[in-house]
Design a protein that fits this description.
The protein is of the alpha/beta class. It is about 40% helix and about 15% strand. Helix 1 packs parallel to helix 2 and helix 3 runs parallel beside helix 4. It is globular and about 55 Å long.
């Protein structure tokens, strides 16, 4: 297939593009290469794929309406995976407009491109952050998500609402994926594993928020990519059992679905740090701090819907995933 993937210089988008190319798909990769974090790392990711057969790089910003209209008109993708977004919960407290531009205006441009160019299926990144202040664990797609605790989370919920509108009005099959704390080689340097590794190797203390009393459903990148591809290959459909009198947030009488994609095995932050200490052979000096605004104490994915839909459950153990990240980190930064 010809697949448009936005965010191909990003962490998930880069790994996904490689897998799609390896199986013989054509990938049109869109990225604006912004400087939210190290552009050299983004370029390093692109260097992995730019010479692979079937890959076309497009340097563009998804919130540039004219540019995205041109991309859809010129390449006519059959399916689209939208992973481009302004990421980060904490940064949304500092620069909210970046989230409006990319996550809202940019997503409208993606939806309009899909609508006007007969795209068969749109898969897009949502986030576990949409669960916001929910305290019932594990998080289920059938739960109410009306109480986000960061603008980032609000934009991701908005994406789901916008997608549903296009599924309802125009019959566009859309599938939203609520990612749970993705980690692994080539990861984002603003994420905990990257920050901890850098600090520990430099002999600096690590900042541990909520005094370490956090739990996260850490999910390895290869598992995430496998889940994305399986969902991409099975376009969303109408739920024939949908009851408008008791509406189910996860499905619709339109071709619309949302899925959790997580490890479904939450790990205490201190255990995660212990796995990293073991892989590095370094004991971390921990700077215990209060919880930051916009954070939540625990995430835990109920992935039964994803398993039922595409017969998939993540399998990578934290110990193995962290070790693979450390091997990559040392190799990449020792060069």
């Amino acid at each position: 297939m010809r697949i448009l993937v936005t965010g191909t210089a990003g962490f998930i988008g880069n790994h996904l593009a490689i897998r799609l190319l390896e199986r013989g798909d054509e990938v049109i990769g869109v990225d604006n290469m912004n400087d939210y974090y190290d552009v050299n790392l983004k370029q390093g990711r692109l260097d992995r794929i730019k010479h692979l057969p079937g890959f076309t790089e497009v340097r563009a910003d998804i919130h540039d309406r004219d540019a995205m209209e041109t991309v859809f008109a010129n390449y006519k993708p059959q399916r689209v995976v939208n992973l481009a977004a302004q990421a980060g919960v904490r940064y949304s407290l500092k620069n909210p407009y970046a989230y409006v531009d990319s996550n809202l205006l940019g997503f409208v441009n993606i939806l309009e491109g899909c609508r006007h160019h007969d795209v068969e299926h749109l898969v897009y990144a949502s986030s576990s952050s949409v669960y916001g202040g929910n305290t019932k664990l594990p998080f289920s797609e059938h739960d109410n998500i009306d109480h986000p605790v960061s603008l980032y989370a609000a934009t991701k919920k908005a994406n789901e609402l916008m997608a549903h509108t296009y599924s309802h009005l125009f019959g566009l099959p859309t599938s939203g994926l609520r990612f749970f704390t993705v980690y692994g080689p080539w990861g984002r340097p603003d994420m905990a594993l990257f920050l901890f590794t850098k600090a520990m190797l430099e002999g600096n203390p690590i900042d541990v928020f909520n005094h370490g009393n956090m739990m996260r459903d850490f999910t390895y990148i290869d598992d995430i990519v496998e889940g994305v591809i399986r969902v991409l290959d099975k376009p969303a459909t109408v739920n024939p059992a949908f009851d408008a009198n008791v509406p189910d947030p996860a499905t619709s009488n339109a071709p619309y679905r949302v899925f959790n994609i997580g490890n479904s095995q939450p790990v205490k932050l201190m255990e995660y740090i212990e796995a990293l200490e073991s892989a590095l052979g370094v004991v971390a000096e921990k700077n215990l701090l209060p919880m930051q605004q916009g954070d939540v104490p625990a995430t835990y994915a109920d992935t039964s819907e994803l398993d039922d839909w595409v017969d998939f459950k993540p399998k990578t153990r934290i110990k193995d995933g962290v070790e693979r990240f450390v091997v990559w980190y040392r190799d990449y930064y020792d060069r």
